[in-house]
From TrEMBL:
Residues of the Solute-binding protein family domain: 77-440
Gene3D superfamilies referenced in this protein's UniProt entry, alphabetically: Dipeptide-binding Protein, Domain 3, Periplasmic binding protein-like II
Record protein name field: Peptide-binding protein
Main location (coarse class): other
GO biological process annotation, one example: peptide transport
Organism: Streptomyces ficellus
Transmembrane regions listed in the UniProt entry: none
Amino acid sequence: MFNRTSLQAAAALASISLLAGCGLFSGDDADGENKIVVGTTSAPSTLDPAAAWDGSWELYRNVFQTLLSFPTGSATPQPDAAECKFTDTVSKVFECRLKEGLAFSDGGKLDARAVKHSIDRIRTINAKGGPGPLLGSLDKIVTSGDRTVTFHLKEPDATFPYILATPAMSIVPPEKYPADALREDGKLTGSGPYVLNSYQEGAEAELTRNQTYKGFANRKNDAVTIRYFKESEAMVGALRKKEIDATYRGLTAEEVVQLQEKKPENEGLQLVESTGADIRYLVFNAQAPGVSKLAVRQAIAQVVDRDALVAKVYQGTAEPLYSMVPKGIAGHTTAFYDRYGDPDVDKAEKLLDEAGVDGPVALTLWYTTDRYGSGTAAEFAELKRQLEASKLFRVTLQGKPWNEFQAGYQKGEYPAFGRGWFPDFPDPDNFIAPFVGKENVLSTPYVRPEITDQLLPKSRKVSDRGAVTEEFEKAQEILVDDVRLLPLWQGKLYIAASEEIAGGERALDPQTVMQMWELQRKTSW
C-alpha cells in the first residue's frame, strides 16, 4: 500500500446472482432495524492507525475520517473532512481547509491541531510495518487557526493527495492518542461514519451510526457487525445459516466455484465479483542462508509453474502474474515470463551448477494461516510439490497466525515467505515503492538506489500516469534481475451475500476497501 497519482477508474463490479430475487431497497431506517452482519477472515492487526499498513484499513475506513477519500465511483481523491489543493506551481505545498463543526465521536473537537497531531505521530512513532514510509515526501505540517492545515513537501509530489486519502491517514484525537506512542487501551475514537461500540480481538466488531458524523458517506444501514473468522469454511457456513448477511475477503477458489453453482444450499445467495488488483508473491531475504545466492532464487523462479498453481488451487478465480505490477495497471509487463519463459527444470539445474550450488537445496517457505483465506495452505503445498518434483529443492513449510507471522518476518527470521498485497489505489508506484528501500513494508531491506532515487522520483513529477510506463518497465526489469520478489498470481475479489442484501456492487472503493455503509437490506414486495 503506497501512494501516487492519476488513478484509473476503479474496476467495475458485476453482480452475479445465483438465484434471482425481487425486492425494494430500504432507505435509512428511522427505527434502527436496518442492521448488517459481515464476515471476513481478515481481522485488524491493531486498532491504532499509526501502526497498520494492512487489512486493518477495512475497519479504519468505516470508523475514522481522512482529509480526502474515495467515494464509490470516484477515480481521484474527493473531499471528506476538508477541501484541499496545491497552492504552488510545483506541487510542493498542499493546503487543506477543514469543514466547520467537525467533532470526534466522544465530543472532542476535530481541528487543525488534531490533523497535524495524527499525521506527525505516524512519523514520530515509525512503527515497524506501519504506514510511515507513505510519508516519505513530507517535510513539515503547518497549521493556521482551527481549520487550515498546510503540508510542505521535500520534493514535488503531485500524488500526495492520494496518500492523504488512505485509511493510514485517519484523524485521531490528541487527547486519546499519544504523540510518541501507540494507544494501548484497546479502544478506538474517530469521527467516521460509524462508532466502534465494542471489539473482541479476532472475533467481532460492533459498529453503530456516528450521530455527529459530517462526511461524504451516505449510510444505507444503521449498524454493522463485523465477524472475524479464522477459516473461510466456517464463514461460508455462517452465511448459509443466515448468521451473517455477507462475506468479504477470504473465500477460497473452491468456495467461489461452489457458490456459483445452482444447488439447494446456495438458494437465496448472490455473488458480487470485482476484477481485483490484489496480488500474491514470494519474498526472499537475501541476507538469509539458503536464498542468499542469486542462482538459488533464479532457479526457484525458473521452476515455479504459475499456470498449474492457478489451475489446481484457484480454479479460475485468479490468473498467473509475471510482474509485481498486475494486469490492468499502467506499466504492467510480463518481465518474469520474458526472462524465464515456461517452467524448465534443466535450465534451473544449469543455473545452480554454474553457481556451484549442490542440490537438493534445503528451503523453508513461511506463510500466514489466517490472513488471506484457507486457500493459502493449498497454495504453498502446491509450491512445495513443484519445487520438490524438480529434485533440486527439499522444502519445509511453516504456517503461523498473522500476528506471529508478521512478528517473525519483521525480525528477519524467514528466508522466504509469502505475502499478499491489496493496493492503496491502482497505480504502478503502489506495486513497487512499498517493497524497495532500506525500510519497506516487508521489513526486509532491499536497497536499490536506481529505483528509489531515480526512477520513482522522476515518475512522481508526472501527473499523467500513462506517461511514466518507461520508468516502471525499467524498475520491473531490475526486480527480475534481483529476484528478491517473485510474483505468483493476481486475483479477483468476491462478496458473497444473502439476496436480501443490496449494495455489494458499490461497496468496494478503488483501494478495494469495504465501505460498509453501502450495504443495505431489501424489503419485500
